[in-house]
Amino acid sequence: MDIDDPGDFIDLQQQAEQLTAEMDSGTDLPPVERTLQQILQAGERLLSRIAPVSQDATDVKASILLGTKGYDIPKISQKLEGLSAAKTYEPLEPVRDTDIQGFLKNERENALLAVIEQTRRSTFEETEQHHWECLENEWEREKQKILNALLGSGHETIDFQPETESFLTDTITMKGRSNLDEIEMAYAKQVYAYNEKVIGGSILPNLAEIFTDMAKTLDDKNVSDIWEMVSCMVNIPVAIGDNTLARRLDRKVQQAFVQNAKKYLEQTYTKFITNTISGNLQRALLGGVPGTYNMVRSYLNIRPVSPTHGGLEDGTVDGHPTWAMIYYCLRCGDLKAAQQVVQKTAHQLGDFSQFLQEYSSSRDYRLSHGTETKIHLQYRRVVKNSTDPFKKAVYCVIGQCDPNEDHAEIADKIDDYLWLKLSQIQTDPASTDDSTGDHFTLQKLQTLLYENYGESHFNGYQQPFLYFQVLVLTAQFEAAIEFLSRIEKLRCHAVHVALVLYQLKLLLLSHTSQAQLLSKEPADPAPIRRLNFARQIMMYTRKFEETDPRDALQYFYFLRELKTNQNENLFMTCVSELVRETKEYEMLLGCLEKDGSRRPGAVDKFQADTMKIIELVARDTEAKGAFEDAVRLYDLAKKPNKVLELLNHLLSQVVTQPSAPLSNKDRLKTLAHSIAERYRGQGLESTKSNTSSFYLLLDLLTFFDLYHEGSHEQALEVIRQLQILPWTADDVEHKVNSFRYYTDEIRRSLPDILLATMNMLYSQYKNTKNTAPQNPLSGKSQKEDGGKETFLNYLRSQARAMIMFAGMLPYRLPGDTNARLVQIEVLMN
């Protein structure tokens, strides 16, 4: 065919047009209704729109436009080129020496740049330092938490290969019953009763006496001895001031400690002699007037003094060595009985009767300076070389002579050794200040027993009660508590001894809650140690806080006056961690009734600021990422703004998902609706942005539920009423401006809203093309009034408005969203 022939070309054109008219693609795409000439013209128009414009033409147009506004393009270009800033803060290049103005300008700019660079470096250094400090603090808290969990688990050793059966048994036991044993439960009952009186504001009982009475019911002599010892030691003058260290170092308090320790040792020794006599009444030949004198005489009848010990230098009394009789009377704490012995042999003892008389009449059991000098001289010249160990011991007690002498011949037990050493302690101001002289102070005895001898010397783990006694009777309470805490079976006793001392303000506390259980501060005199009381309580409660959270609260209540390193109330902090660990929100913090009132929880009985505690728990829960629990806690704390803020965050993540039973969306939707109904009824309000976003998200939940259920007509009606999207081209700009005021939670849902709406419009478009439903615009059949095409154009205009809206939004939509929107819009043309 010769295409140069015009007739042939016209025939070819007519055949192409006929083929085009008869062509049926079989798809939903509209048929092509343009001729080849129209297609050619449309292509030329499109080419003219996308053809690149030369740079010169662009510059000319820009110059004309800006020139009409009064701008000089060449000058502006020069200024813009001169505004190029360096990317680093390096000093500027020096200028010539002859250019003074340039030199000064350069120096000024260099100085500014140097300050900026220095500030930048210091800022980075401070930020990095703060970052590492935060990490270290967080790691310290985690280490403490892990250690507390390990020590509170009830196992002294950790088995890294547990058997499955035993693990399941332990789990069932933990969840099925209390982890408190009988002794711990007995202590917990007393703590509960004591706290009840503290909260009630009544006269506080003596906590030490309460535990002492309780220990007598346990049928354990060692435990009873612990509490008798503690009760005796804490009987000291009333505290003045809050400085525990100053009080512990006070002369009168130390003197009270020494006298109390001696009194306890004398009482226990009297009981020992009495029991010995009761078991040997025939040999004892008790008889006579009841009293210490006859008791000592009877005891020596049973256990006479060995000839190897001497004791016959100054005669006998009732057949027993005089000095032995005096020593045992002093050992029982009865000075009158000792004077009775002295009176019977006064002619043989020289000046000693005067010494004993002055010693007995002294309030603090001290001789005058002159008498003390005299007895010391007599001891060095005569008594020290005596063969009678009882005579040397009596002189050392009465005259406080030779504190380095151990008196091993008669002090063969630790009780006798402690009594002799305590009797030689001098607590007057002159002796206390003399740390290098011969004065024997309580600090020197503490150092001797704790640092020089130590735990291994007394076989601490084999004889824990003995070593505990050594530390307590020398007023080393913190070390005694820490030692007993290391033994699992005795830890509960140590904790409650610490409670007694803490309540009496006798316990030296660590300066930080992250310190070791027993620590030493550089400024404290030796051998002072400090106890991390808070850590000990948390270690103890870790064992049973999951099964007995109410009892754990009772122990945490003792921490109400302490602060954490972040200056937060330690009681509130512990309660927060307890709630988060056990998740017993309703039992501990209470719950909301239908009318919005809060039913009290276990924390309310402590008369603390419960709402502040709940808010703290909510903040900690939010910080851990448990947002759903944090919503309920903030709701309980009457913080509607935080409730809606977190709910908006949670709902925005699930609002577009299909609903399913027991799903996150279903649970959050139920929670959100219940809160919305209550807030409407009670008139609780949050910020305007949170409130509007919350209720809009609730409506969007309804919209997407209808969409996923296939109820497109109802879903479109809901989205039209929300007025988020434009439905005509005239509304696009207004909706774009309104979009700027939406929160991020709404903005994140917009791509799915657009896609869902476009899908429903396209679904209506297809249904309209394939059927002839009633025209929603006229109410008549589309075949009757020819409204089918009108309705299709109506749907197309809505889709074009959506595309325009998506393109003008100041928000970056996902790339696939734009592509899908355009694809759907193309299918509708």
Shape descriptor reads elongated
**Strand-pairing-aware structural class:** mainly alpha
Rg from alpha-carbon coordinates: 47 Å
Number of helices: 40
Description:
About 65% of the residues lie in helices and about 0% in strands. By secondary structure, the chain is mostly helical. Among the domains are: about 640-720, no CATH class; about 725-829, no CATH class. The strands form 3 sheets. It has a two-stranded antiparallel ribbon with strand order 1-2. Strands 3-4 form a two-stranded antiparallel sheet. Strands 5-6 form a two-stranded antiparallel sheet. Strand 1 (about 315) and strand 2 (about 320) form a beta hairpin. The longest helix is centred in the first third of the chain and has 52 residues, at about 100-150.
Describe the structure using short key phrases:
829 residues, mainly alpha, two-stranded antiparallel sheet, two-stranded antiparallel ribbon, 40 helices, 1% strand, elongated
Topology:
Elements: H1 6-22, H2 36-50, H3 55-68, H4 73-82, H5 100-151, H6 164-176, H7 182-200, H8 207-216, H9 221-233, H10 244-248, H11 251-278, H12 281-284, H13 292-302, E1 316-317, E2 320-321, H14 322-331, H15 335-344, H16 346-349, H17 352-361, H18 369-381, H19 389-399, H20 414-423, H21 429-433, H22 442-457, H23 464-473, H24 477-485, H25 491-503, E3 518-519, E4 530-531, H26 533-541, H27 549-556, H28 570-582, H29 585-589, E5 591-592, E6 598-599, H30 610-623, H31 627-636, H32 640-654, H33 664-682, H34 688-709, H35 712-722, H36 732-739, H37 744-770, H38 782-785, H39 788-808, H40 815-827
Antiparallel strand pairs: 1-2, 3-4, 5-6
